[in-house]
Amino acid sequence: MSNVLRLHGAMLLALGVVVTAQNVSQGWPYMFETEEVFPSPPMRTTGVLAESLTLVNQLITQLTLEEKVGLVEGSDGPCGGSIAPIPRVNFKGICLQDSPLGVREADFVTMFPAGIAAGASWDRNLIYQRGLFMAEEFRAKGINIALSPVVGPLGRSAFGGRNWEGFGADPYLAGVAAKETIAGFNARGVQSTIKHWIGNEQETMRNPSTGPDSVTVLQESVSSNIDDRTMHELYMWPFADAVRAGVSHVMCSYQRLNQTYSCQNSKSLNGLLKGELGFQGAVMSDWFATHSGISSIEAGLDLNMPGSPTSPYFHNITQFIRDGNITEERLDDMVRRIMTPYFHLNQHNSSYPTLDLGLNEFKAQEVVAVPILPWKAVSAQNIEDWNFGPPKNRDVRDNHGEFVRELGAAGAVLLKNEGALPFSKLRNVAVIGNDAADLSQGQFALNNTNPVGPEFGANAVGGGSGVGRFSYFVSPLEAIKMKMGAGLTQYILDNKIAVESIGSLYPPPEACVVFVKSFTSEAYDRSTLALDWNGDAMVEEVARSCNNTVVVTHSGGTDLLGWADHPNITAIVAGHLPGQEIGNSIVDILWGNVNPSGKLPYTIAMEVSDYGTQIANFSGTTDINAWQSDFVEGQYIDYRRFDAYNITPRYEFGFGLSYTSFELEKIDIIRLTKEVSSTAPSQPVSPGGNAALYDPLIFVNVTVRNSGSVAGATVPQLYLSLPNSAPAGTPLQVLRGFEKTKVLEPDERQTIAFILTRKDMSFWEVTAQQWRVPSGDFTVRVGFSSRDIITRGSVTLI
Ligand code: BGC
Predict the structure, then answer these.
(1) What GO molecular-function term can you cite, just one (predicted)?
(2) How far does residue 550's CA lie from ligand 1's centre (Å)?
(3) Nearest CA-CA partner of 235 in 311, 138, 170
(4) Largest CB tally within 10 Å, which of 121, 319, 681, 794?
């Protein structure tokens, strides 16, 4: 038996994993399965949803079996996903629409900063407002369900193609950001969807490969093989926060989890999500992620998207019921889970905005442009069935552009500054690189999953379903020209030309701002952590001749930045994916209108190999089950790995400079209860799990002082080290608190209070299947990054 298996054996058994002789012979349990958990827990009849549940039950009594079946699968309709109306009972249908950064298939909408930029702001208020403003736009277009936000992928691998849709590679940060976003959606009465549950950490082989008939499976999708403790402490963590925050729906993911497709994994859907976390909404499939009818329904899937005709698995539920394979009560529970948020958020009221007919035209256009798409827009005869109403092509943007500018700057991270920034009295600047340019391939590519992205155009969002159509776009070049006014703005946008003829600039610029990017998109993982379009070589070439080279990256995650120590590179800003105001946001940072306060929500390594975990790739194999991604690293991803193996990062998790400096003055730890039991008193499960897990156990106060000469904000971060009694595999430290300060004037102070809950201070004990507070000394570490711990204290609870 390998060491790895010995280490994880108990955990796997607790997750119901069947460890076979074959597993053992192959080391890490290559072929394990999870236990089955049945039946699917029905919705509770008490709690905050009780009133709306009554309304759903009234609806259910009026519906025929066929009509109920119509509610649990998608249909043709005006939206990315649509639930058909039932005119007989005056039900006007439900519209589901991407994306996590704004309304996707629509006009006159705002493209907000991507999740990774919001995460990099570490600013709860801004993240809440982002949710609120996005919700206002979904609502004003008449959309019922937003397919947002994302906490899976979490960012197990720096190469993950969709990491940028989420908030960063830490479950606590992602959980807080999800909670704030969902609170924003709930405040505006728009249903939210947390996705993708769970273990959705790579794009490569996320779906099975099929033969020429498109049906016969040649190879099953990759299986994310995750042990029970890692599942709880890492991947489930932010989903638990989302469920607790009242998320309406959960989208199950494409890939397999421990050998079983995510949307038919009864352990994860019935057991973990509906059982342990007490989730009260619907489990919705990702688009075409359903692979069965009866098995999926039994396993806990409630809504099949996009539904018939291409994904007809739920179409025969009437037959399943007649044959006794599914109970009508299970179907009713599916309907309740889908429809309760609709009533709870008052979307049945006439006060809810009508659907913009433009959505339907957009859909029709998409169907023409991409003929393989199986769904259709609403036909002229059926328009009345839906909740359409004037005006068409509504402008729902309000003044959200201003907010985008603000959050875009807040999500920029200053990585290096040798006094070059902020610019002042600049008369002659050079703007270099294709990432400074305006968009060159249109504001929205209908089917824009492309592994490379356009050559020319600032990289303001990623690719795939997680984006939308720009109504306008402020490029870095445009914003810098505006800022420079009568000054000289020289520019070369073609990276090749920049490398060849940087010397052609005259007079020599006082500063050369190089804009570089790396595009990341759904459906593809990154093949390299280098910059696109020869960006790294261009940076080095510019730096050879320009001794004040400022580099700005626009990227969905890590770029290795091998040239970072070049003496002529005087500043580096990781601008992330800031949305439509990309130019103004970066100008605000470069010229110091905004003092940078963003922090890295992931680690930038010196070398690719430092990251350890890679995208699983079994290309070239033929075995139907060959694609196995064993999460053998357990919790050691991102900074947890760098800490555990003592690897020095280039820029660590939580790092980010400012134009001023800060001090942390004192740490004060206050125990809130005298007696702490090691496990939570048992309470009925409420959304998020046992409510007692969220009881506060300690307060930690610190005082921050602006010790520099200009105003600015920062982010004190609290990292907790569990006592030695915690089992092997426990990270050296985990983020358990952060707070963005207000903008502090020089010498101004602010006291920050962190609250740590029972769950924050526990580990998941696999054998007992519960969270346990370990005995011994906790070390509470507070600083300005995961490696810049300024003050620490300790506390013993048990
Ligand atoms: C994506 C989801 C998205 C859905 C609908 C899928 O390909 O994985 O995130 O919500 O499409 O567009």
Answers:
(1) beta-glucosidase activity
(2) 37
(3) 170
(4) 121
For residue 305, name the pLDDT band (cuts at 50, 70, 90): very high
- The pLDDT score that the predictor gives to residue 21 is 35
6 pLDDT tier (thresholds 50, 70, 90) = very low
pLDDT in tens, 206-264: 999 999 998 899 999 999 999 999 999 999 999 999 999 999 999 999 999 999 999 99
C-alpha 694 to ligand 1 mean position (Å)? 32
d(Cα 704, Cα 175) in Å, to the nearest integer? Answer: 24
- Banded model confidence at residue 706, pLDDT cuts 50, 70, 90: very high
pLDDT at 29 over 60: no
Q: Count CA within 13 A, CB hemisphere, residue 94.
A: 27
| E-only strand ranges, 18-162 | 81-83, 94-97, 145-146
Residue nearest to atom 9 of ligand 1 (CA): 465
Nearest CA to 319 out of 303, 331, 306 is that of 331
Burial of 47 (0-12, 13-18, 19+ CB in 10 A): middle
Q: Is 147 in the pocket of ligand 1 (CB under 6 A)?
A: yes
- pLDDT of 372: 72
Q: How far apart are CA 637 and CA 641, in angstroms?
A: 5
The closest residue, in CA terms, to atom 4 on ligand 1 is 287
Q: Give the tokens for residue 58.
A: 């009234």
pTM score, two decimals? 0.96
The whole-angstrom separation of Cα 739 and Cα 717 is 7
Please give the angle made by the CA atoms of 548, 549 and 551, to the nearest 5 degrees: 150
Can you read off the two tokens belonging to residue 373?
């798409």
Measure the CA–CA gap between 759 and 680, rounded to whole angstroms. Answer: 9
333 as an active site residue: the answer is no
Is-cis flag, bond preceding 507, omega within 30? yes
Q: What is the CA radius of gyration of the chain?
A: 26
Query: What type of residue is 789?
Result: I
- Residue 12 pLDDT grade (very low, low, confident, very high; cuts 50, 70, 90): very low
Catalytic annotation, pick one of 286, 333, 385, 525: 286
- pLDDT above 70: residue 404: yes
